[in-house]
Write a structure and sequence with these properties.
Shape: extended
Order of helices and strands: HHHHHHHHHHHHHHHHHHHHHH
Radius of gyration: 35 Å
Number of strands: 0
Number of helices: 22
Mean pLDDT: 86
Largest sheet: none
Strand content: under 5%
Oligomer: single chain
Helix content: over 70%
Length: 404
C-alpha cells in the first residue's frame, strides 16, 4: 500500500510544470499527499467497518462457524480497532452457543481486557464468562475475569456472575477469597439471603463457627426462601461446636421437610453417637438405610458404612459383617479399598486370618505395611507360601522406595 502511494506521488510530481518554483511544487505536493492519505485511511476504515459488520451478520444469522472465522480474522487484522472488545465478545458468543466453554470464557475475558464495550455487552461478558468458567471449574479463568473488575467487583459483575465465581473459589478451597467476594457483594446487595448463606458456608469452611452461626441466625429470622437451608447448615455448625442438643433441635425441625429429611435423621444419629446413645443411633441409621431413595447413593454409602462400624463397636459381629459387605458393594474408589482393608482388619481382630485374606487380596495395591504383614500371616495360616513370599518381597520393595 505504501509503495503504491509513493509511486502515485512520483507520477504526479512529474506532471507539475517545470516552470513552477520549488517552493510552489512542494506546497502542491503536500496538499496532494494529505488528500491521498485521507482517501487511503478512509478506505481502511471502510474495510474495517465492512469486516466487522460481516461478522455481526453471520452471528445474527446463527452461522456460527463463519462468524467465528470473521471475528477471528478481525481481531488479527485490526488489533488497534475501537471495535476490538466487541469483536472478542462476538467470538466468545460463537463458542458459548456451542457449549465450548473454555474458548468462550477466554474470549469473554479478552473482550473485557480490550474494553470499549457497551454496558449490555460488558454485563453479558461477565455473566457468561463466569458461567463458562464455573461450568468447567476453571480457577485460572475465574481469577482472570475477576481481575478486570478489581477492586469493586459487585459494581460491574452481575449477581449471577458473582455467585458462579464464589462457587469456583469454594470448589478450589479458596475460602478466604470467596469470603472477600461475598463481602463486596453484600455492600451492594445488603441483606441478600443467598449471599448471606454463602457467607455462612465460607465461614464454616474456615471453621469460624461462631461467626457462621450468627449469620445463619439472621437468615432464619428474616428469610423464608433460605430458612431451611440455613437451619440445616446451622445444625451442622452447632454440631461442630459441640452444641449437640441445639443441633438436634434444628435437625428435628427439618425431619418433616422432604428435601432435608434423611440428612436430618442422619445428623440426629450422630448426635446420639457422640452422646453414646448407641441404640438410638442404630434406630436412626436403620431408618435412613431402609427409607432413603435410590438416587441418594452418596448418603446410602455413608450410612451403611456407619452401621457396620457401629455394630462392630457394639460387638455384634454378624450384623457388622453384613453391613460391611453391603457398604463394600455400594462403595466407589478410594472408599471401597479402605473399606476392604477395614473389614479385613476387623476379621484379623477376631482371629479370622483366613477370611481376612479374601478382603486383603481385593485391595492389594493399596495395602499399608501393617496390613501386608497381616496378609502374610493369613497366607501362612492357609499354607500359601508362594503368595506369602511375594507379599513380603513387595513389602520390602515398598519400604525401600519410602526410604525406611
Amino acid at each position: 500500500m505504501k509503495s503504491a502511494i509513493v509511486k502515485m506521488i512520483g507520477n504526479i510530481w512529474s506532471l507539475i510544470p517545470r516552470g513552477l518554483v520549488r517552493t510552489t511544487k512542494l506546497l502542491v505536493m503536500s496538499f496532494l499527499i494529505l488528500v491521498l492519505s485521507g482517501s487511503v485511511f478512509a478506505g481502511i476504515g471502510l474495510r474495517e467497518e465492512r469486516d466487522y459488520r460481516a461478522a455481526v451478520w453471520y452471528l445474527r444469522e446463527n452461522d456460527l462457524q463463519q462468524a467465528r472465522y470473521q471475528y477471528s480474522q478481525f481481531v488479527e487484522d485490526y488489533p488497534g480497532s475501537e471495535r476490538l472488545g466487541r469483536a472478542y465478545f462476538g467470538l466468545a458468543e460463537t463458542y458459548y452457543l456451542e457449549d465450548e466453554y473454555e474458548f468462550a470464557g477466554s474470549n469473554y475475558k479478552q473482550a473485557l481486557i480490550a474494553g470499549n464495550l457497551p454496558a449490555e455487552y460488558r454485563e453479558q461478558a461477565y455473566r457468561r464468562g463466569l458461567d463458562a468458567a464455573g461450568t468447567i471449574g476453571s480457577l485460572v479463568l475465574t481469577e482472570g475475569i475477576l481481575e478486570t473488575a478489581e477492586p469493586d467487583y459487585a459494581a460491574v459483575i452481575p449477581r449471577s456472575g458473582l455467585l458462579n465465581a464464589i462457587q469456583v473459589m469454594e470448589n478450589n478451597q479458596r475460602y478466604q477469597q470467596a469470603l472477600e467476594l461475598i463481602r463486596n457483594a453484600l455492600d451492594r446487595y445488603a441483606d441478600d439471603s443467598e449471599f448471606l448463606h454463602e457467607k455462612a458456608v465460607q465461614l464454616s469452611n474456615l471453621e469460624r463457627f461462631e461467626e457462621a452461626e450468627k449469620v445463619l441466625d439472621r437468615i432464619i429470622e428474616q428469610s423464608s426462601l433460605y430458612r431451611e437451608e440455613a437451619r440445616f447448615l446451622r445444625a451442622e455448625v452447632r454440631f461442630a461446636m459441640g452444641k449437640y442438643q441445639a443441633a438436634a433441635a434444628d435437625y428435628k425441625k427439618l425431619i418433616e421437610i422432604a428435601e432435608f429429611k434423611y440428612d436430618a435423621v442422619y445428623g440426629l444419629a450422630w448426635v446420639e453417637i457422640v452422646e453414646e446413645n448407641f441404640q438410638s443411633a442404630l434406630e436412626y441409621l436403620s431408618q435412613v438405610a431402609e427409607e432413603i431413595p435410590e438416587e441418594r447413593q452418596r448418603l446410602r454409602r455413608v450410612v451403611t458404612r456407619d452401621l457396620a462400624r457401629l455394630y462392630a463397636t457394639l460387638g455384634e459381629a454378624g450384623k457388622a459383617d453384613q453391613w460391611y459387605d453391603t457398604a463394600i458393594e455400594l462403595a466407589v474408589e478410594p472408599g471401597r479399598s479402605q473399606l476392604l482393608i477395614e473389614k479385613a482388619e476387623y476379621l484379623v481382630q477376631r482371629g479370622q486370618l483366613e477370611a481376612a485374606v479374601v478382603y486383603y487380596e481385593q485391595s492389594r495395591e493399596t495395602l499399608p505395611s501393617d496390613s501386608l504383614k497381616s496378609l502374610v500371616q493369613g497366607y501362612l495360616s492357609l499354607r500359601k507360601y508362594q503368595p506369602a513370599v511375594e507379599t513380603l518381597d513387595r513389602g520390602f520393595e515398598a519400604e525401600k522406595i519410602s526410604g525406611h
